[in-house]
Amino acid sequence: MARPVSFFSGPPRLGALAIAAAAVWAIPQAHAVPFSLGAFDTYGILVNDGASGGDINTAPVNANIGIGAVTGPVNLHNEVVNGKVDCEGSCATAVSNGAITGTQPVSLGGAPSPASVNSNVAAVESAITTAKNLSSTYGAEAGSGTAVTIHNTTQTIQASNGFHDPSGAFVFTAPSFSLNHNTLTINGTSSQFVVIDVTGTGSNALDGALTLTGGITPDQVLINFIGVGGSNVGGAANGATLDGTFLIPNQPINLNELTIDGHLFAGEAGQNFQLVSNSFVAQPPLAPPTPPVPEPTSLALLGAGLVALGIIRQRHHPVARS
Description:
alpha/beta; 2 domains; 12-stranded mixed sheet; 6-stranded parallel sheet; 4 helices; 18% helix
């Protein structure tokens, strides 16, 4: 009667290798996502290079603040900041009234630890570069995006109705973004990513609620204002909450009476960054680091090694025949 070959009955190294292979294959494999906020994820509020200064005059600020190479100071009004303030250069010139109080929570990278103002932080420029790249990359797809009208109405956008671009994101294009105290709902799953490219530069306002349903998160939704110049992107949402990541790199902003549950990147060159009068930003917890995943090539080599060792074992230990 033939005796079956067992990888575990031979030399210890072969059994150990088989166990290691099983452990490797048991590791969940990484799945590509359309986009990641990367370094931008560190900051709930990110002020673009070239902004002429501005005001963050609301308390508490439940977010980390990143300030790029601005040409005038951003006035923090000695507010409560539950996070940290990082400046690309010297905070002595980039910040005024920076005697902030508050605590940097564990969810935003703290120990927890007291709020702090930090100069010459290279991560700020990395975050700005990431945010700009996201804006320009998806802004280039505005001509292909599914057309939507976001103006003075309550509506629901289904993520899957967007143009499914090569990265896997669902892209929409709107000529303007103005809710006028209505509610925009984006419905999508936890594996879907949505971009809304806003092409116009007039009458844009974060003046209503933006709600996410179905499992999609603020880090997976980009509201991308791709126009240059024009009038302020205003606020006055009467305290409404907008969930998402807002990219406004080349238009002036003057936001008030709203809460952004997500991230805000803004600050047109030569213009002030205004986040005032009961405008709040609630930054989501930092995304956990992605664990390393074995490369397919490594797994293939390991499998080939196991096969080779099995053949060698069979040659050295012929199978008994009855």
